Amino acid sequence: MAAETTPTIVAKDLWVGYGTEWVLKGVDLTLTAGQEPVGIIGPSGTGKTTLVNTLLGSIKPQQGTVTYQGHAVAKLGRGDKKKFAGSVRHVSQYGVPTHDPRLTVDKYLSNALKDARKAGRTHPTTIPGLLDFVALSPAFSTRTLITMSGGERQRLALAHALATRPDIILLDEPLTAIDPGLRSEVLRRLKGLAADLGIGILFVSHDLEAVDRLCDQVYILAEGNFVASGGLSEILATSDHPVVADLASAAPHTAQRLR
Questions:
Q1: Is residue 3 very low, low, confident or very high in pLDDT (cuts 50, 70, 90)?
Q2: Burial 74-87 (b: 16+ CB within 10 A, else e)
Q3: pLDDT tens digits, one per residue of 112-157
Q4: DSSP 3-state assignment of 156?
Q5: Hey, which residues does 43 pair with through a beta bridge?
Q6: pLDDT tens digit string along 188-208?
């Protein structure tokens, strides 16, 4: 993979469908390390997760391209895939795996730090430091993943993703099981860390409050493409698209504050 000064993902004219139904219809998006966090909001079933999986290369678009450092993500060789996996991290709403009842937090994060070293992405991060960042006590290091709550596993998944000090992190509804007050604190910490370390963030959610806390630039995904973009308060004040109205009606207090 050719080196560039700033790691960048570029999606151009993405068309992705299942059967005869198009889910994405010509989506364009650029994500760059160091840029302000970008948010994507849309109702369930609108293609948000499909877009994330296409950016990761696990879904190949029928038309259009996704490139990282100028190379097609879906066609990376084995070595470049390892570099990509360390540089671009993904956290979903499902948190961390629980299929191995013996897997502990310490082992899970140790494996991530080991992968970071193998990929040449070492940095002075410790397991207690990672846990502290996501508001988990150091005592959690001896816990098995299967004994943790959904919200605890979601925070652990974020710590795991940050272990490689990624250039870009893709967050797909990553904090849905967390108490709103704690969610706000984790988002505050994440925004500060991203600014300090130059991490580009894509935050995909239906939660207006969470997106507003993290992201200055927001896209509304509907009907297979972005139907509005800008600051969230600007979108709510100026867009007359029915999906924007539906999102606002689902979170009236947040929408009223932003307007």
A1: very low
A2: eebeeebebbbbbb
A3: 998 888 777 767 789 999 999 999 999 999 999 999 999 999 999 9
A4: helix
A5: none
A6: 999 999 999 999 999 999 889
Neighbours of 67 (CB within 10 A): 15
Residue 134 near residue 163, CB atoms below 8 Å:
no
For 16, the 3-state DSSP assignment is strand
CA–CA distance, 77 with 81 (Å, rounded to integer): 6
How many residues does this entry show for the chain? 259
Query: CA 227, CA 24: separation in Å to the nearest integer?
Result: 12
Cα→Cα distances 36→180, 208, 254, Å: 23, 17, 22
Contact 125, 163 (CB under 8 A): yes
Residue 59 is given by DSSP the state S
* CB 198 within 8 Å of CB 33: yes
Taking the CA atoms of the chain, what radius of gyration do you get in angstroms? 18
Residue found by looking up tokens 């151009």 in the block:
12
Buried b (16+ CB within 10 A) or exposed e, 112-123: bbebbeeeebee
* CA atoms of 10 and 192, how far apart (whole Å): 24
Instruction: Say what the pTM is.
Output: 0.93
Residue 90, both tokens: 């993904």
